[in-house]
Amino acid sequence: MTQPSGWSAHEDAVDRLIRSSAAVPPGERVRLAKTTSNLFRPRSAAATTGLDVSGLTGVIAVDPAARTADVQGMCTYEDLVAATLPHGLIPFVVPQLRTITLGGAITGLGIESTSFRNGLPHESVLEMDILTGAGEVLTARPDHEHADLFAAFPNSYGSLGYATRLRIELEAVPPRVALRHLRFHDALSLTVAVREIVGSGEYEGTRVDGLDGVAFSPHELYLTLATWTHDSRPTSDYTGQQIYYRSLQERTSDLLTMHDYLWRWDTDWFWCSGAFGVQNPLVRRLWPRRWRRSDVYHRIIGLDRRFDIIDRLDARAGRPQRERVIQDIEVTIDRLPDFLEWFDAEVGMRPVWLCPLRLREIDGAARAWPTYPLVPGATYVNVGFWGTVPVGAHAPHGPVNRAIEERVHELGGHKSLYSEAFYERDVFDRLYGGGELAAVKQKYDPDSRLTPLYEKVVTTR
After folding, report:
1. H or E segment to which residue 437 belongs
2. pLDDT (tens digit, 9 = 90+) per residue, 279-332?
3. pLDDT tens, position by position, 445-461
């Protein structure tokens, strides 16, 4: 492959990054100089100085023949897909929200409907260039001298370093996606169907390329089966007046472009746009289409958190204070009915998103990753729930989030760390490979310039 001009710009950006790292005074923690984030856990004010990643937001090169792409760490999936889809290619796993970055999805993990066959985004990474806490940019590969860094990087959330470049595998896809929405009347029957699809890769004789679902109530659950297709019939559009998640209840089949399928959840941030009134037909007509995006809603939430707008309005109206419950948890498929039954009784938040996943198998085998507790060969279901629950004066202490965490742990599950976590240190280390992570951190960040993972996701409030 001929080296394109993107490499020269990338090298310049890496040089600026290294210089900005060297400029951080001794004794100060190194962090990104960025003002936006897809994280929901409490954290200190965003840095205005720090690592300069301004030139690391693009796609360096796409190799259609090899089906690979070299991508900068701060490149959003929106921009990545825009570069690969014209070649009939997409990343193996494309997280649901446009502005999630590739580096963020690797170090913080991502998931989507192809995860039942392709695993998580880091499992299709061939190599990474990582700026470590020691200020070096090292190339890590699974069979390389820095294989320990490669293995520990997923789910490290910047505690080991930041990816400047990632070479990833790409999947060939046609231009359309055919959908089937299957309704189930209880969680147990849904799990039976998931097992069948995961085991065979098909349902009733039709190949399944993507699999996720929504539970609207204990007796109304849906699986959406996606099949890549060349079907040329007219497609649906859920970026205008129609709302995607409602279509699951309204029709049994659908057809989308590949582009619209990848971003089907982003327009309404799943169903969370309803909190801003955007699902009201009148408001929707007046709300500019370019603002119907998850990152816009996220900024609005940021303003609310900054000025306590909702809490003030609730207090003035005499309503109990609300606790933000924004989590993604994972349990093995056999424990899904148990979790949903408990969740309905104790939390009562619906709908919830369901996404089956397994570690990716290559030649019939899957590898375990030390910092994320998935067992090779096991099927899990990610349950995502995002909203608020009225709890009163105890809301700042997170009683609902703590109860969810405890119940998930009782069921042998775990959760993503992008939001609030309350684990005791020993439990956290058992779940997330604390011993392995500490050894790798000592090797590549001996002066602890980067915030340790436990401190970053649990104790920093």
Report:
1. helix 434-444
2. 999 999 999 999 999 999 888 887 767 767 666 766 777 788 889 999 999 999
3. 999 999 999 999 998 65
The burial class, CB within 10 Å (0-12 / 13-18 / 19+), for 415 is: buried
Q: What's the token pair of residue 293?
A: 């995006």
User: Are 38 and 89 within one domain?
Assistant: yes
Total number of domains in the chain: 3
- CA–CA dist 430, 416 (Å, integer): 15
Higher model confidence: residue 348 or residue 5?
348
What CA–CA distance (Å, rounded) separates 220 from 190?
Answer: 10
Angstrom distance (rounded) from CA 211 to CA 366: 20
250 falls within a domain: yes
Picking from 362, 365, 393, the residue whose alpha carbon sits closest to that of residue 377 is 365
Residue 100 near residue 195, CB atoms below 8 Å: no
Residues near 143 by Cβ (< 8 Å), separated by ≥ 6? none
Cβ within 8 Å of residue 369, ≥6 positions away: 122, 151, 154, 155, 359
Q: Concatenated DSSP letters for 373-408?
A: ---TT--EEEEEEEEEEE-GGGGGG-HHHHHHHHHH
Query: Residue 438 above 70 pLDDT?
Result: yes
Its domain, for residue 28, covers: 6-173+443-451
Residue whose tokens read 């900005």: 20
Q: Going by DSSP bridges, is the β-strand pair 352-357/380-390 parallel, antiparallel, or unpaired?
A: antiparallel
Angle at 444 between CA 442 and CA 449, to 5 degrees: 80
The rounded radius of gyration (Å) of the Cα atoms in the chain is: 22
Is residue 88 domain-shared with residue 155, that is, in the same domain? yes
> Please, what is the average pLDDT of the chain?
92
Q: What tens digit of pLDDT does each residue of 9-59 get?
A: 999 999 999 999 999 888 888 887 665 555 655 555 544 457 899 899 999
Give the CATH number, domain containing residue 163.
Answer: 3.30.465.10
- Across residues 93-106, what is the average pLDDT? 96
**Residues 6 or more apart whose Cβ sits within 8 Å of residue 413:** 329, 330, 331, 332, 335, 339, 380
**Interaxial angle between packed helices 399-410 and 336-346, expressed in degrees from 0 to 180 and rounded to the nearest 10:** 160
Nearest to 338 by CA among 379, 376, 378, 381: 381
**Beta partners for residue 331, in sequence order:** 381
The pLDDT of residue 285 is: 93
